[in-house]
Design a protein that fits this description.
Radius of gyration: 20 Å
Number of strands: 17
Number of helices: 10
Strand content: 15-25%
CATH topology of the largest domain: Quinone Oxidoreductase, Chain A, domain 1
Largest sheet: 7 strands, mixed
Low-confidence stretches: none
CATH superfamily of the largest domain: Medium-chain alcohol dehydrogenases, catalytic domain
Structural class: alpha/beta
Order of helices and strands: EEEHEEEHEEEHHEHEHEEHEHEHEHE
Shape: globular
Helix content: 10-25%
CATH class of the largest domain: Alpha Beta
CATH architecture of the largest domain: Alpha-Beta Complex
Mean pLDDT: 94
């Protein structure tokens, strides 16, 4: 099979070809696993974090990609819920122990043995991959392969982030950064909370224009102050400074939800917090750690009910490096997806 392989960590601002197109043997599924013929795989900022070493794979080489849509091509001898020909998706959660207090309470995203697709195990930047049947999810028929791929991470983790805000209809929501996840959150919020106004902070004029086009009542620079204080803000940026700016825009008693696996740049920027401006009056900061299987299943059902179809840019597998560079340099409009031939 063809696969885009990460063989060494590098700074993407210096190396424009971090992945190598390689031929590898088709993997063989274990007794509880399925073999997927990959049809599409979303491109996520977390792949940049892997390549640049902020959340490095425990071993190299590795095949990245954790927003995977494919057809079941083969099944292990103990698989009993899926059959050959089923179309399923694979998300960031590749496996968990199933026995710790977090797994037993449905919070396997916090499991100490949590394994991530495309980081701890080979992912979907390839023609085939294997995964446990318990971590594969049926894809609603109304979504094409490339439409479904971003739903598995950008959508599912956006869904978790929105739920963690505790937002009520009529309150004001802020989105800092406007990429794959944030544009799906805006679509969700407009349907779930029809009386809620959404304010967007983004670094580029194109992203701000896209946000207004999608229904944001206001869009400004990351450093700007919104015309009103915001009850909840979801940060999806790769940097630290937007957190400080978001806290300044937060209403008393409001909550900032940070939707990021890692942050780039200088951590000292958080030391620039001005307590009365940024944290006083019972403001809260909550991080998002991975996703659970329940998040993925609930969101796919909700997306089908809402007919929530992301804005996408499609690339062939061989152009995965180009898609990653565009993501790194801020050339973003919705989600980037690899279509596997």
């Amino acid at each position: 099979m063809k696969a885009m392989l990460l063989e060494r960590l590098c700074d993407l601002s210096e190396h424009h070809q971090p992945l190598t197109l390689t031929e590898l043997p088709v993997p063989v599924p274990g007794e509880y696993e399925i073999l997927l013929r990959v049809l599409a795989c979303g491109v996520c900022h977390t792949e940049l974090d892997e390549i640049e070493g902020r959340t490095p794979p425990p071993r190299l080489p590795i095949i990245p990609g954790h927003q995977v849509v494919g057809d079941v091509a083969a099944v292990g001898n103990r698989v009993n819920t899926l059959k050959i020909g089923d179309r399923v998706g694979v998300a960031w959660i590749f496996s968990a122990c199933g026995q710790c207090k977090f797994c037993l309470s449905g919070n396997e995203n916090l499991c100490p043995a949590f394994a991530a697709t495309g980081r701890d195990a080979h992912g979907g930047y390839a023609q085939y991959m294997t995964v446990g049947e318990s971590f594969a999810y049926p894809i609603p028929e109304q979504f094409s392969d490339v439409q479904a791929a971003p739903l598995l991470c950008a959508g599912a983790i956006g869904y978790r982030s929105l739920r963690l805000t505790g937002l009520k209809d009529g309150q004001r929501l802020g989105l800092t950064g406007f990429g794959a996840s944030a544009h799906l959150v805006l679509m969700m919020a407009r349907q779930q909370y029809p009386n809620t106004e959404v304010y967007v902070f983004a670094r580029s004029p194109e992203e701000r224009a896209f946000a207004r086009e999608m229904g944001a009542v206001w869009a400004g620079e990351t450093t700007e102050r919104a015309p009103h204080k915001l009850d909840s803000i979801i940060d999806t940026t790769p940097a630290w400074q937007p957190i400080v700016e978001a806290l300044a825009n937060l209403e008393a008693g409001g909550r900032l939800v940070i939707n990021a696996i890692r942050k780039e740049g200088d951590k000292r920027s958080l030391l620039d917090l001005d307590y009365p401006l940024h944290l006083w009056r019972e403001k809260e900061i909550k991080s998002v750690a991975n996703i659970t299987r329940r998040d993925v299943m609930e969101f796919l059902s909700l997306a089908a009910e809402m007919d929530l179809k992301p804005e996408i840019q499609v690339f062939p597998l061989e152009q995965a490096n180009q898609a990653l560079i565009e993501l790194k340099t801020g050339k973003i409009r919705g989600a980037k997806v690899l279509q596997i031939d």
